[in-house]
Amino acid sequence: DQTRVLLCAGATKDMGKMLGGEEEKDPDAQKKEEERQEALRQQEEERKAKHARMEAEREKVRQQIRDKYGLKKKEEKEAEEKAALEQPCEGSLTRPKKAIPAGCGDEEEEEEESILDTVLKYLPGPLQDMFKK
C-alpha cells in the first residue's frame, strides 16, 4: 500500500508538470546533478578497471594455452611473415634461386627446342620445311 501511495504521489507531481503547472525549483538541483555525474563517472571507471582485470586474466590463460601447444600470437606470426618476406628482397632486385621451380631457368632453351621438335612432328610436311629453315 505504501508503494502505491508513493507511486501516486510521484505521478500526480509529474502530471502537474505535464499539464503546464509550475515546476518546483530545487535549490540544490545543481549540486545533486554534479554528484550524480560524479557517481556515474566513478561507476564507469570501476567498470573499465574490472574489464581490464578480466582481460588480463583471459590473456594469462591464453598465453598458458599458447605455451602448452607451441602456438604463437597473431601479431608475432604476422611479424615473422613480414620479416621473412622482407629478408630475401633487401639487397637483391631478383628473386632468390630457391624460389625458381625445378625445370625453369637455365634449362629453358633445351626444353623449348624439344617442345618445338614435338610440335614440328605433327605439322604437315610443307610447314615443317618452313620452320626448319
TrEMBL record:
InterPro entries: Synaphin. Residues 1-113 are annotated as: Disordered. Signal peptide: none annotated. GO terms for cellular component: cytosol; nucleus; perikaryon; SNARE complex; terminal bouton. GO terms for molecular function: syntaxin binding. It comes from Tichodroma muraria. Belongs to the complexin/synaphin family. It is found in: Cytoplasm, Cytosol; Nucleus; Perikaryon; Presynapse. Keywords: Cell projection, Coiled coil, Cytoplasm, Exocytosis, Neurotransmitter transport, Nucleus, Synapse, Transport. This is Complexin-2. Its main location: cytoplasm.
